[in-house]
Amino acid sequence: MTLPMVVPAPGLPARVRIHEVGARDGLQNEKGTVPTQVKAEFVRRLADAGLTTIEATSFVHPKWVPQLADAEQLFPLVSDLPVALPVLVPNERGLDRALALGARRVAVFASATESFAKANLNRTVDEALAMFEPVVARAKAAGVHVRGYLSMCFGDPWEGAVPVPQVVKVCKALLDMGCDELSLGDTIGVATPGHVRQLLTALTDEGADVEALGVHFHDTYGQALANTLAALQHGVTTVDASAGGLGGCPYAKSATGNLATEDLVWMLRGLGIDTGVDLDRLVATSAWMAEQLGRPSPSRTVRALSHKER
Ligand code: HMG
Ligand code: MG
């Protein structure tokens, strides 16, 4: 299999943890609903490819995200895997559903903007934070790891540019609430590297621990890898990505695919940064998933390597 030559660059971490979101962020945005057994095989193959954190599904209202309405059926099919399987929970009802199935990692998801808070959660920003507070408290009391997502950190389709202090304020609220980690979402993919650096600097200047920060880039304008490199240079070691570049967000129309996990692994491998991922198996998984979905993967790396004899 073709692999990049390894040429390390200074000032980068030795290891990166990939938070794989294809089965959730990817499949929530498909027009059709993928059969539960196919989703389960997808998650199993991702684990087999060496991914250790695989976001499995969402315990949201099934009418809001019908693509993931089978969460109760799916989770038990994958919960034996020896990997972390975070699930999205917007409220206590979602947490109850997740805990009943033995989930050990949950994620709440806030918005930096009022427009997206309303569109995605039917709440103002403050109402959404109030909704998460008991979720985080109860999850922590049960020893469950909590991730906080923050969407629209770099731009919003209704409101345009989002001021950095506005983003920092909601980040702080999530961290103060007790979230163990925070994923900074560029939901519509408008960020550029200087903007990423500016937000991360503002957050670490305010006392945020860079170890608790992750980045979640969508590749709408082809900036996701450049933005990732800027984040790594700032000390971030958790990067969200979606196998095959699947993804988007049903409540943010201009959101396209996430950063493709294969493209990320290719870059990190070239930089000599360890991820534990077997690129060959991952590409085969995304090529298989693309067949299930009936269209080619948007990932450059998947396309390049699928065409080569491996
Ligand atoms: P609402 O309509 O305001 O709900 O929606 P409600 O609290 O008024 O409750 C209405 C009914 O829904 C009640 O039933 C509840 O029990 C039920 P009734 O008493 O009328 O019979 N209900 C639920 N049922 C099952 N599971 C639940 C649940 N909650 C309430 N969890 C709500 C509020 C938060 C539920 C809704 O807005 C929702 O489900 N939103 C989810 C949207 C979503 O999943 N978006 C995609 C994920 S975010 C994303 O993709 C961004 C990210 O990738 C980062 C980035 O890129 O930026 C993370
Ligand atoms: Mg997303």
Automatic annotation (TrEMBL):
GO MF terms held by the record: hydroxymethylglutaryl-CoA lyase activity; metal ion binding
Domain Pyruvate carboxyltransferase, residue spans: 16-283
SUPFAM superfamilies per the UniProt record, alphabetical: Aldolase
Coiled-coil intervals, chain numbering: none
Database matches in InterPro entries: Aldolase_TIM, HMGL, PYR_CT
One biological process term in Gene Ontology: ketone body biosynthetic process
Record's keyword terms, sorted: Lyase, Metal-binding
Signal peptide: none
Pfam families with a match to the protein in the record: HMGL-like
Family: Belongs to the HMG-CoA lyase family.
Entries under PANTHER family matching the protein: HYDROXYMETHYLGLUTARYL-COA LYASE
Protein name: Hydroxymethylglutaryl-CoA lyase
Organism from which the protein derives: Streptomyces curacoi
